[in-house]
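User:
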Amino acid sequence: MKITGIYENNGSININNPIGFRSGAALSSYPISSTSCLGFITDPNNAWGKSPSPNVGDLYDGLLNGQIGGTGNTDYYIDPNQFLTNDNDAWVDATTPGWIMLAQSEVTSNGEWINDSSYKDVNEYNLNQFIDLSFNNNGEWSLLVDPGAIDGATQALGRPAVFDHLTFVLKGSNSAEAPWAIFDFNFWDLLDAGLDISLGDTAYYFTGSWQPNVVNGQELSNVGIWAHDPLFSITQVSAPGTLWLIGLVMVFAGGTLRGRSSKISDGGWRKSSYQ
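Assistant: Predicted structure:
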């Protein structure tokens, strides 16, 4: 999985002017590879944790929040901290890891995987109101947020949020092994490496690519798309809902936010045997 471009979205997008990189930094050009990967996993099958509800990041609600399951198994799960490896990563609180599912889609014959029914709800709000996702058979994906959809998005989660991860769960075809893998973009890592994302209330448009046979040489069967919502203490908000707009496009508010909570892990949880 790769990001091929990040562009400011202020109502119009200049695809000839992508966000750049800090001079002399380790990261200096596109495409940007995913920062972490878990897989390929062959047992258990990826058949659980795809319908989180209310989908606000609660512990055990959804695959990336530690929900236990797996076909024929009852003791497998993904540790919610699996991709929270940067010092800036955090949970919302002791019972809220903060992983939000954006969309889930099965393979389609028309080339474009994402349709209106693919988008998930956050409480009673459908995310199709706020984001536009694309994932297609040409090996391309994109994420666009309507910069005007601020107030409704704020109400959806019920708290200010800044998404700092974008994560793809890719499952291979329904063979005997049915391997699957998870690819994560940790934007804290990318910022550390030199990605020069504007801080504040700027909206972004993301474009990316994926290899059609990326999961152990198999064609894909379905894709799940997630984001992570950490906790911030708010000292200043210039307009209602600004932080939700920032969060939905994986933007980080600098200067207006400070005082992150610590990442929380329960050492008593049983990690699955395939990690």
